[in-house]
Design brief:
Strand content: 15-25%
Keywords: Cytoplasm, DNA-binding
Family: Belongs to the YbaB/EbfC family.
Subunit structure: Homodimer.
Structural class: alpha+beta
Shape: rod-shaped
Protein name: Nucleoid-associated protein ACFSBH_02965
Largest sheet: 3 strands, antiparallel
Low-confidence stretches: none
Function: Binds to DNA and alters its conformation. May be involved in regulation of gene expression, nucleoid organization and DNA protection.
Length: 104
């Protein structure tokens, strides 16, 4: 019984190290999304931090600021969804098969 517990603890420690490494790799990734046919591009890292916003000059219309705002929102939401999907894919491999509600 005691040997099983020690073995289980070692396995949990290994999994924790793998999870931490996977999370570090995720945080270093770059994600990019565009809207308006590339008129607005938003770049984020795996920590969900926006690192760059690129706006093409021709989309800047003082008479239609709302369109530019919509394009920025669309590209930002898209890039953040990409980060979420990759995070779920990356971290989900560790929680698959574990039935521990509320743990992750």
């Amino acid at each position: 019984m005691r040997g099983n517990m020690n073995n289980m603890m070692k396995q949990m420690q290994k999994m924790q190290k793998k999870m931490m490494k996977a999370q570090e790799e995720l945080h270093e990734m770059t994600f990019e999304a565009s809207a308006g046919g590339g008129m607005v591009t938003v770049i984020a890292n795996g920590k969900k931090e926006i690192t760059d916003v690129q706006i093409k000059e021709e989309v800047v219309d003082p008479d239609d600021i709302e369109m530019l705002q919509d394009l920025i929102i669309a590209a930002t939401n898209d890039v953040l969804n990409q980060v979420d999907e990759k995070s779920n894919e990356t971290m989900g491999q560790f929680t698959k098969g574990l039935n521990m509600p509320g743990m992750f």
